[in-house]
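It would be a great kindness if you could assist me with a short task in structural biology. The matter concerns a single protein, recorded as an amino acid sequence and a row of backbone structure tokens. Could you please explain, in whatever detail you think fit, how the structure tokens follow from the sequence? Thank you for your consideration; the sequence and its tokens are set out here:
___
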Amino acid sequence: MDQKITSLSKIGKDKVQRLPYSIRILLENVLRNHDGFSITDDHVQRLADWNPEGTDQDIPFKPSRILMQDFTGVPAVVDITSLRSEAIRQGLDGENINPAIPVDLIIDHSVQVDYFGTEYAFGNNVRKEYERNEERYKLLKWGQQGLDNFTVVPPGKGICHQVNLEYLAQGITERDGHIFPDTLVGLDSHTPMVNGIGVLGWGVGGIEAEAAMLDQPIYINCPQVVGLELTGKIPQGCTATDLVLTITRLLRDVGVVGKFVEVFGDGLNHLSVTDRATISNMSPEFGCTVTYFPIDEQTLAYMEQTNRSREHRDMVRKYCKTNMLWRTEDDPIEYSEVVELDLSTLEPTVSGPKRPQDKILVKNLEDKFAELLKDEFDRNYIPVDERDIYTWMAEGGSGSEFNGSGRPDPDTQTKTDVAIAKERDLRSVPIEFKNADYTLSDGSIAIAAITSCTNTSNPSVMIGAGLLARKALKRGLRTKSWVKTSLAPGSKVVTQYLDRAGLSEDLDALRFHTVGYGCTSCIGNSGPLPPHIAEAVNDNDLVVASVLSGNRNFEARVHPDVKMNFLMSPMLVVAYALVGRVDIDLMNDPIGYDPNGQAVYLKEIWPTQEEINKTVRESMTTEDFKKTYDAIFDGDQQWEDLAITGGTDYDWDEDSTYIHEVPFFKGLKKEPEEPQDIKDARCLLYLGDSITTDHISPAGAFSEHSAAGQYLVDQGVSPFHFNSYGSRRGNHHVMMRGTFANVRLKNKLVDKEGGFSKYLPTGETMTVYEAAMKYKEDQTPLVVLAGTDYGGGSSRDWAAKGTDLLGIEVVLAESFERIHRSNLIQMGVLPLEYTNGASASSLGLSGHEHFSFTGISGGLEPGQNIKVTATAESGEEMKFDTRARLDSDIEIAYYKHGGILQYVLRGHLNGER
């Protein structure tokens, strides 16, 4: 076998050893793929001479494979299939449009929690998943046989990142007579989870990944690499989740957007691969591109546990040690910056209520809730000691029901809830539903979800949750009846070890039944709240909460009716579900009372790390991984029954409301037109800071009153069958109407919250889509004004596609997150940044101006100055400079072609590919 990286010896061992491991892998990548055209000597030298300060110069990356999930994978397949259809219409062989590298698509984002808290929940949810998504799944099944290098993992098998970690990731790959590092990009921002097993990979937009599928290098700026030094050991009572939420806050404060993070230090010796993967998973929450853990003994131990062969493990060890990719304690690496964290300083932590970086210590959540309720919702909150509430009640203080013993009923806590709501001045409503009476109020937990690959991949916290459930049951505690509980493992291996340990029964007893194998609440597929809960929340404008073991808690993501969302470990999810409220100091107050009125404290039911480790050792087997992944590509009967049609060219159904050929490539000319200056543009949206791709292109449910809902109703689809935005991403008619339709979006041009704008020529308020279409009729170009960190969150290609289809030609922001900025360019939308610390507010812009942008025509250069003239309605002009965030020559080429896929297709049309 040819170990290609050995050519690094020409560069010099001393020189290579100072490079971060992640840069060494990039250097190997350009050496192996060097062709003198797209990857040149300059690129090799740029990485060999890597500067810790980073540069604005681009480097190419050709991943060895691509990972997809279905929410982003369906539109990617639609795009590739649309490219093929247009190539065929223009006389080319459609077989030339095929993935050039392996693509694995795992269907994991479509299962919704319609049923919960029962043994039949899983089966019923899977059945409804197929009912809703038959058209989408037929497309993917066609792709499995119609496209080369394309495999599909059917529904119900697991979450893409956990499957990647446990099965797909190889560390080192053998292919075509070569041995080289396993690398990838994924159509999901949490792809860096695989960094935990020593594989370099990150999330990209679907558009970018599609180009990589067609053998186009992905270009990134030569990155800075921040060294994260971990020392010490995680203390008793804390988890890897507490660690990752602490790191999220730490690295957000440091500022690592667009940078690589590489982890080192003696703390790594105490972190398993699953602990490391928990950290790497949340790289997009830090803002960095990757959080890389080099391969070491822990990596090989995990490979053995997960059924990678001895021969493969030996190859990984030999290759890495031979080629300077094996972690050692004394590498003389020069990082751009070093950030230190002593693991022994960790405390139990949650994050929220709407950003993963908003760290809150568990002991402070009650006080923080009071502050949030006042600041965000202008409501008062009077903290009281719940122990005093119980004393007061026992003395007959409220007049509500007792259980006959003078103590509060531990099952419904009717009296407690009434008393707490009354004493704390909370907005509340009594609920009478069948056999349960209770009070729902601000701070009540509506959803408690053990979900997301972030934590379900980690046996320590999953076993911990099961053990905590067992101990709670022994003390007579139960989850509160108003809490919608769910467990969505990231792979079937989780179920096998929970079953073997007897912990599935304990979790089921607290209504944490398995509802599906997929992302569920983490991606917004929480399903509906029970009608009586939803009615109480909406009619009384209650500020209820969710607690989930996920990685995202952006506004309206988990559920549109839930206004506070807190990330935490699975163990804490169970604990808070027992309480039913977030406004409690879990570290000091009772989490409940047993049937005899005795207080139960969290520390009394929290399992020790020794208990967890012992149970993990006894319940996990290599055979579990073999059994699960030997059948990973086998679909159930519902999958087998899907009938597909079409050959080389997909058989498009014009009546479909799920799948449509995209309009981007139809009638594409062989040569692009030169970009021109933009004149007399109007502002469609004037937005603030931290606008995420969820704000731009929401993934969850939508109502019949939205623009997308009205479209589907007109197509004869009932609201009951709307499904979600994420599931409709194969239909651009839905998605362009859903762009900027988040119900929590705040557009400064209008006085109402949600997806609304103002058609400035008449001053009418209407949906963003309606306003955009009126501007399109007028042939008026559009601009978005935004603040800092525009486009954070998921690598959501429709956030850029929808922006383009609405007629938005410029997004002017104070700063961009990496993936979305790249995606805008790849759809032909120009990202501009204010210069000299300016902003829309500091310049006095109202959003009502007419905007003209000059410096675009006549040739563009990376980072070019673009002059803006903003003309107020009074005729007064304001002129200021901006910087084009076209950071490389290749990005300029993509922009000129109107997008990256147009660039690729023109290469085929002109015989260059």
